[in-house]
């Protein structure tokens, strides 16, 4: 029976898909060489180039060296090129190239592993270089710690070096965290009693620490840009809120609503534009922290530890990214609250205006009713007047015919009766209309 993915519901119904998932457990195999050795590690940001294009570039290089290239779906591939063991690995937003060469240069770092690479490939990597690391794995001498420390300083060309023992004192790691003339940082690993497999794992961890700490640092320029933008938006928001708080001085709430809407749009743009960068920095920093813990570095002599310096440098940068992200979210929440408040105030004003309109309409209706009642009263008297006048003509005609009546007396007697009849008729008509 096929089982769906938990998040997408896509069925895993082919053998190739199941094999691909199983192979993820064996992805990114370690490069192994016995000590001593030298290693060059280059990371190139992908930018507008796709993973497929980088994979094809590496496949073309392998073909030019008479080697098989990576498969169409592969994200890593290792080949032997002359004296080099070369590995390409495709990451989410970068590609890494790692070279291992047996033995050390004389002196160490004089002939790094990248110097054994094809000139055209080496030139292409240097043009795209984002991060470069040279590692020299050298035998550990039995000299005192301070003597080994002086040797490390000589190899790295710096008095200020950072390092300590790793793998239960079976090895040591040292670096100055400074770049050489070609933009590579240099790391010395002293092999005191490391097995080939353990050495490979430690080299891999160090390379991952160096790679992901620099990728994590990509969030720092973005955080500084965000801080600068928010520094402009926050005073603008404060000004709008102050106008809302003293709305008598600025009754144009619609204008304030327009301003705060533009601020909200800018805040959302900032949040959306940098959300991926900050999330990626968090993920990279998490990998660095795990790899640092796995190194289990211990203090060695009087020099500060490699991992201590790394964490002291990386932590403030990550805190800056977290602060920028948190500040953006807080500003977005403030804008939302201010918008809701302003919407409520505009709605209240509209309700007041509607209430005033309704009161005006009610007053007009009341006046119209009074006018109508007055007109009805005049109408009753007018109808009565004309009716009595008609009766008066009838009474005068009857007197002219010889009937012994007094027209004026009869007219005066019938006038109240006619008035009552007209009034009752009008009232009856009004009652029927109300039903």
From TrEMBL:
User: What top-level branch of life does the organism fall under?
Assistant: Bacteria
Instruction: Report the transmembrane regions from the record.
Output: 377-395, 407-426
UniProt cross-references to InterPro entries, sorted A to Z? DUF3422
Q: Coiled-coil annotation: which residues?
A: 321-368
Record's keyword terms, sorted: Coiled coil, Membrane, Transmembrane, Transmembrane helix
> What name has this protein been given in UniProt?
Putative membrane-anchored protein conserved in bacteria
Organism equals Congregibacter litoralis KT71
Read off the lineage from the record.
Bacteria, Pseudomonadati, Pseudomonadota, Gammaproteobacteria, Cellvibrionales
């Amino acid at each position: 029976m096929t089982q769906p993915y938990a998040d997408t519901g896509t069925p895993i119904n082919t053998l190739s898909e199941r094999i691909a998932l199983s192979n993820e457990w064996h992805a990114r195999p370690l490069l192994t060489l016995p000590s001593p050795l030298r290693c060059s590690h280059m990371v190139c940001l992908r930018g507008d180039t796709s993973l497929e294009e980088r994979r094809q570039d590496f496949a073309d290089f392998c073909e030019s060296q008479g080697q098989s290239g990576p498969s169409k779906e592969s994200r890593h591939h290792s080949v032997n090129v002359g004296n080099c063991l070369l590995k390409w690995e495709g990451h989410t937003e970068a590609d890494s190239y790692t070279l291992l060469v047996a033995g050390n240069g004389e002196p160490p770092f004089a002939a790094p592993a990248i110097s054994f690479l094809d000139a055209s490939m080496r030139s292409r990597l240097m043009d795209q270089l984002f991060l470069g690391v040279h590692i020299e794995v050298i035998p550990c001498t039995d000299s005192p710690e301070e003597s080994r420390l002086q040797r490390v300083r000589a190899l790295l060309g710096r008095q200020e070096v950072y390092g300590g023992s790793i793998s239960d004192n079976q090895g040591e790691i040292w670096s100055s965290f400074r770049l050489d003339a070609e933009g590579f940082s240099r790391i010395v690993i002293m092999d005191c009693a490391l097995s080939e497999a353990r050495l490979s794992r430690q080299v891999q961890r160090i390379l991952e620490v160096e790679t992901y700490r620099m990728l994590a640092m990509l969030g720092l320029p973005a955080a500084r840009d965000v801080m600068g933008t928010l520094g402009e938006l926050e005073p603008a928001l404060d000004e709008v809120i102050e106008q809302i708080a003293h709305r008598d001085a600025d009754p144009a709430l619609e204008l304030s609503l327009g301003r705060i809407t533009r601020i909200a749009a800018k805040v959302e743009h900032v949040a959306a534009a940098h959300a991926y960068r900050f999330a990626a920095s968090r993920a990279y920093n998490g990998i660095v922290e795990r790899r640092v813990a796995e190194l289990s570095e211990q203090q060695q002599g009087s020099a500060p530890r490699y991992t201590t310096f790394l964490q002291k440098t990386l932590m403030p940068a990550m805190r800056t990214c977290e602060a920028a992200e948190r500040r953006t979210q807080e500003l977005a929440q403030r804008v939302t609250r201010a918008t809701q408040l302003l919407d409520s105030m505009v709605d209240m004003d509209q309700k007041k205006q509607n209430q005033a309109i309704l009161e005006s309409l009610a007053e007009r209706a009341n006046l119209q009713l009074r006018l109508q009642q007055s007109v009805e009263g005049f109408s009753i008297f007018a109808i009565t007047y004309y009716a009595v006048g008609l009766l008066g003509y009838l009474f005068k005609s009857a007197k002219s015919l010889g009937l012994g009546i007094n027209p004026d007396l009869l007219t005066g007697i019938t006038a109240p009766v006619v008035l009552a009849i007209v009034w009752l008729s009008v009232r009856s008509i009004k009652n029927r209309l109300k039903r």
